[in-house]
Amino acid sequence: MSNYRFSQLSENDFDQMHRSFLEAFNDYPVKFDLTSRQFEYRMLNKLNINFDVSYGAFSGEKLAAFLFHTINNYKGRETAYNGGTGVIAGHRGRNLIQYLYKMALTDFQKIGVKSILLEVLENNAFAIKLYEEVGFNKTKTLNCFKKEVLSTKPKKRNIEIKRATAIQDNFQSFGDYTPTFGDTLEQVIFNLEDESILTALIDGNLIGYLIFQAKIGRITQIAVSKDYRRLGAGSALIYAAEQVSAVPLTVMNVDCNYSDLHTFLINQGFRKSLTQFEMELKL
User: I need a surface site. Which of 21, 48, 114, 252 has the fewest CB within 10 A?
Assistant: First the structure.
């Protein structure tokens, strides 16, 4: 390890972080061909990266391995979320991630973090084994969906779809589905500049909402009040989002235990595109 310098990352490392991220994921099954602006959006907005708990292994001036984290309250616990782990070619097989996590765990315990979460592709056996060696355990199976069939315009109903400019207080009461860390309302607030909010109303009363990133077609949350389900509000929200999305809609990381949401998405023309595991390390 004497050939490496291990340290917390900082904003001054950002260009190097971008280059190393692209290099580390160059051979990954899911392509991450992000421009500098897209990477900045992903790290600073969507992830809301916390540099104090993000770490790098440097070989000379080159970032050879990295851990990108944020911290937020999730299910009532102070939780760290891993928004990026990577090692560039030529530096793999040297236990760099394990060493970086030794640093991270010490810092997390000092500041009261109770849990660390991440997601990993189900067929990435190497990464799963690495995380298990660090102390992570599989906690959920998560399915990701892509819309392959265009919606037809819903039949005229008394459901009105409107744009909103802010998250409303009663959004939390609509769903019986808990999103994964990155799609909670507590995280969405950091990315409101790039999120669009659609609301469904009957007689002026809010009955449902959809939050999505129109530029990339990614639905962050969709929920309809229990008293107004199966009336077409969900379909109307999906159709409205599809009309303004630049690309086909996607939904990421749906817990496989929520069969009703899976059925709804499939009925709307979505198809499963990949599966991931959520993994957790409790402190």
Answer: 114
Distance CA 65, CA 222 (A): 36
Cα–Cα dist 190/81, whole Å: 15
Q: What is the pLDDT of residues 89-146, one digit of tens each?
A: 999 999 999 999 999 999 999 999 999 999 999 999 999 999 999 999 999 999 999 9
Q: Tokens 């290099």 appear where? A: 23
Overall pTM > 0.85: yes
Q: How many CB atoms lie within 10 A of CB 131?
A: 25
